[in-house]
Automatic annotation (TrEMBL):
InterPro entries: NUDIX_hydrolase-like_dom_sf, NUDIX_hydrolase_CS, NUDIX_hydrolase_dom. The keyword Oxidoreductase does not apply. Residues 47-177 form the Nudix hydrolase domain. Coiled coil: none annotated. Pfam families: NUDIX (PF00293). Keywords: Hydrolase. Its EC number is 3.6.-.-. It comes from Lactiplantibacillus daoliensis. GO terms for molecular function: hydrolase activity. This is NUDIX hydrolase.
Length: 188
């Protein structure tokens, strides 16, 4: 008997698609799908562009954190810099652009730590978690989108960990980026 994990990655066959909503950030699509196991199912899909979340850190372990209004919480939330990847743009290029747009900081020695799914049950969005280094003395102009404003500051990594433990950082992407870094990249 084959291991159940061997089945991961098998594709379904989309039998029909009906776009029921088109918006500036995502589309809503109703799909009829034949699953790899032969079931015919109807699903709603939030068709969403891919994104980046950036863990920007200084040589002395200061992390760029920001607060920004988020409609899903109807409040300002604490998080890492993040944004959508433009069409034809690579994740590292998007991360460099988004970091400078939101914070003014210049990305150096960037790397993709991993790519995660936001919620595989209803959206196709993937988020690349980017680690980058910054020099706080290198600071350019910020360029916000017309409908955003982000307050940013440098926070010691130890305090960021305390914010995580206290449940003050709630974004899944931010939590994943920080914990991936702490568990798989950071030495000591």
């Amino acid at each position: 008997m084959a291991d159940a994990l061997d089945k991961a990655g098998r594709k379904g066959t989309v039998l029909s698609k009906d776009q029921v909503y088109s918006g500036p950030i995502f589309n809503l699509v109703k799909e009829t799908i034949k699953t790899p196991d032969g079931l015919e199912v109807e699903r709603d899909l939030i068709d969403h562009g891919n994104a980046v979340t950036i863990l920007a850190i200084t040589a002395d372990d200061q992390v760029v954190l920001g607060t920004e209004y988020r409609v899903g919480r109807n409040s300002e939330t604490i998080g890492l810099p993040a944004g959508l990847i433009n069409a034809g743009e690579e994740p590292l290029t998007a991360a460099k652009r988004e970091l400078q747009e939101e914070t003014g900081y210049i990305a150096h020695d960037s790397q993709v730590m991993t790519t995660i799914s936001s919620s595989e049950g209803f959206t196709n969005e993937s988020v690349s978690l980017i680690l980058t280094h910054i020099d706080p003395s290198e600071h350019g102009d910020r360029h916000f989108d017309h409908d955003e404003y982000v307050n940013t500051q440098l926070v010691p990594l130890s305090q960021v960990i305390e914010l995580l433990k206290a449940g003050k950082i709630r974004s899944a992407q931010g939590i994943c980026a920080i914990t991936w870094y702490l568990n798989f990249i950071r030495e000591g």
